[in-house]
Amino acid sequence: MTDIVVPDSQVTPELQYRIEQFLYYESRLLDDRQFRLWYDMLDDNLRYTMPIRQNRLRREQHLEYDGAAEAQFFDETKKSIDMRIRRLETGFAWAEDPPSRTRHLVTNVTIFHVCKENIQLSAYFHVYRSRLERQIEHFVGQRIDCLKITGDSYSLLAREIRLDQSTLMTNSLSFFF
Amino acid sequence: MTEPFIESEMLGTTHWTSAAICDLVDENKGSIDPRIYTDEQLYQLELERIFGRAWLCVAHEAQIPNAGDFFSTYMGEDPVLVVRQVDMSVKVLLNQCLHRGMKLCRADLGNAKVFNCSYHGWSYGINGDLIRVPREEEGYKNKLIKSDWGAIEVAAVELYHGLIFATWDRQAPKLKSYLGDAAYYLDTFLSRHDGGTEIIGGVTKWVIKANWKFAAEQFASDMYHAPLSHLSATLAAMPPGTSVSKAEWKGTGYHVRTHQGGHGTGFFSAPTEAAQIENIQILFGWMGEDASKYYYTEAAENLRQRRGDAPLGINGAHMTIFPNLSFLPAIQTLRVWQPRGPNEIEVWAVTLVDKAAPQAAKEQWRLGNIRTFSAGGVFEQDDGENWVMIQDVLRGYRARKTALNTSMGQGFSKPHEDYPGIVGDVFSEEAARGLYSHWAKMLTTDKWATLYD
Ligand code: FES
Ligand SMILES: [Fe+2]
């Protein structure tokens, strides 16, 4: 798990701008429920994870997050994301039917590694979800992304979602981060 | 003479008589009164008379392998520490300092040499003994008898196929008698392979704003909801474009209410080879080829050699051990429904696998659980949706006055030559009736002996 995120000195204002626009576009597709268009932004080799976090004493802090081969809320490939989207499309996905209203706020975008093939970045998120009559939930955390450079755009190759909750305060993670 | 109201240790006289509580669960009519899910006093009585007395699953041995390892959990709403001792035995201690009641340890798990209270600094050994008190001389003038103030310990701890159970009640029967008919099924699920089980990673925890009994009952009794509640997940796991009619849950099977104790299970049996192949394919679709192959060959063979053919006829099962331990064998999710007031559950779920399973199979179970039965799992999401909505509806006066139907399969269950318990068709509510009747008994009966008539 990469813990120190220092901005890469090669990051130009243009690159920063392009990356931010990419992330904003992605958010808008999710909030507009354009899951298939969002799906097209995912790389074929996607790894999309959200490890669980435990309350550990400071001396055992390095064990706070469960490892890549342990317990996660998400551990997805492009194929399993497809399965999740197909579920939504069946018309019988009760936890999202009627659908949730979500808003993905993305901020503190820091590009920390740039090379010919990839861009690695950290961004903070605040996902707001409103469901049915009055169910309101907030999810705040950090995303560590690796984008693959594909011509003049990008695809999402890896995303690690670090949610700032230990006990998850919702009954259904039926949306994406 | 009017019947006395039930005395709660915490609330004093309640507004419930024994007869009124028993009337909430009408086995003859096949109905329940929804106040069992909402009433504050009933909830307090549950904490005292169910969670304060029953055998509760507190951990798996694998969570505390070394001396000093602890796992922090709850028995009802009481926080407890499950601690591996120096002699490798297990103690379960109330996670409460006896000075002013602070939580002794606030980490979810870890390793400790002592538990140091963060308020005034009393420290306890991992066996619960109070070993050090700051200013013992200046403050207490050496008058404090430390041996009187050790951490509170449960009345008994027992292990069962790697699971650690505890009870607060000295009168509680031995775990094996508490399980009764359920032991046969537990032996099948927790010991499919005799090499023991392990847990993959930590505990996944999430909240559901609904009464704990919705969850406990569903896993005990409710195969009925699966085809509809989980239709989207069933379809999504099949090849794209599969028609709804193909996603129908076919197959026959059994449903079990234990004679005593309120436990329940249900499963598909596979009398024909074609049905057996279908079972293998379903698990293949949900978990993966390696998991399915291991489960239906190596592990199945190990089970057959020890127990014969009958346990192998149990497929796609759901089960609850009263009150709040549930699992889905083959899927391999095991969870405790922690009660958090009448209107909320905290789900604590783990993925349990055979130690003997190949690494590839274990990884498929890990991923399969994340994607099917966990907070983000495509099956689980829809269960929460139903329970939360029911709980919401029950805010209504008229809604709480409406008797709910629990009559499915009434009168059609009987003993079975292979499977212990009262056995009916896989689609039945016999186990739900058993669970609620036992619930009412536990709230109204003081003596364990009469709980098992
Ligand atoms: S409450 Fe623990 S030392 Fe005072
Ligand atoms: Fe379900």
Describe the structure.
- The complex is a heterodimer of chains A (177) and B (453).
- Chain A is built from 3 helices and 6 strands.
- Chain A is an alpha+beta fold.
- Chain A starts with 12 loop residues before the first helix and ends in a 14-residue tail after the last strand.
- In chain A, strand 3 and strand 4 form a beta hairpin.
- The longest helix of chain A has 19 residues.
- Chain A is globular and about 45 Å long.
- Helix content of chain A is 20%, strand content 40%.
- Chain A has a single domain, classed as Nuclear Transport Factor 2, Chain: A (Roll).
- Chain B is an alpha+beta fold.
- Chain B is built from 15 helices and 24 strands.
- In chain B, strands 15, 16, 17, 18, 19, 20, 21, 22 and 24 form a 9-stranded antiparallel sheet that branches. A 4-stranded antiparallel sheet of chain B has the order 8-7-6-9, with no helix packed on it.
- At the A-B interface, strand 2 and helix 3 of A face strand 9, strand 16, helix 7, strand 22 and helix 11 of B.
- Bound molecules: FE2/S2 (inorganic) cluster and fe (ii) ion.
What descriptors fit this protein?
heterodimer, A: 177 residues, alpha+beta, Nuclear Transport Factor 2, Chain: A, B: 453 residues, Rieske Iron-sulfur Protein, Naphthalene 1,2-dioxygenase Alpha Subunit, Chain A, domain 1, 2 domains, 9-stranded antiparallel sheet, 4-stranded antiparallel sheet, 24 strands, binds FE2/S2 (inorganic) cluster, binds fe (ii) ion
What are the low-pLDDT stretches of chain B, counting only 5+ consecutive residues below 50?
none
Largest sheet of chain B: 9 strands, antiparallel
CATH topology of chain A: Nuclear Transport Factor 2, Chain: A
Q: Which structural class matches the secondary elements of chain A? A: alpha+beta
Distance between the termini of chain B: 26 Å
**What is the helix tally of chain A?**
3
* Cofactors, ions, other ligands: FE2/S2 (inorganic) cluster, fe (ii) ion
CATH architectural grouping of chain A: Roll
| Helix share, percent of chain B | 25-40%
Number of domains of chain A: 1
Number of domains of chain B: 2
Sheet with most strands of chain A: 6 strands, mixed
Number of strands of chain B: 24
- SSE ordering of chain A: HHEEHEEEE
- Residue windows where pLDDT falls under 50 for at least 5 positions of chain A: none
CATH class type of chain A: Alpha Beta
